[in-house]
Amino acid sequence: MIQYSDHVEGGGAAFFEAVEQMGLEGMVSKRRESPYKSGKVDSWVKTKCWDVRDLELLGVRREPGKPAAAIMARGGR
After folding, report:
1. Residues 45/28, Cβ–Cβ less than 8 Å
2. Is residue 5 part of a domain?
């Protein structure tokens, strides 16, 4: 789900902290004069919030041609 907010100029660090506290996935930042373009561009940047915690490593899944994926659990689940 995407939540749109009004334009916020400056105060990026404080805004990101608020995004984290709300439990959101992250935020998208852009240069004011940059129109939307599909694909990866330097003028639009997605910054993700990362949840850091201790997890149990159950194993690693490896498939040819794909990056390895960790299989993890928290509290046995």
Report:
1. yes
2. no
Do 59 and 45 meet the contact criterion of CB atoms below 8 Å apart?
no
Query: Which 3 state secondary structure label does DSSP give 58?
Result: strand
Amino acid at 68: A
Cα–Cα distance, 69 to 60 (Å, whole number)? 6
50 is a domain residue = yes
Residue written as tokens 């990866």? 40
Q: At which residue do the structure tokens 């997890």 appear? A: 55
User: Kindly report the CA angle at 20 between 50 and 70, in degrees rounded to 5?
Assistant: 15
pTM: 0.53
**2 found inside a domain:** no
Task: Give the pLDDT band of residue 68 (cuts 50, 70, 90).
Answer: very high
Do the Cβ atoms of 33 and 56 come closer than 8 Å?
A: no
pLDDT score recorded for residue 65: 95
Q: What per-residue confidence (pLDDT) applies to 48?
A: 92
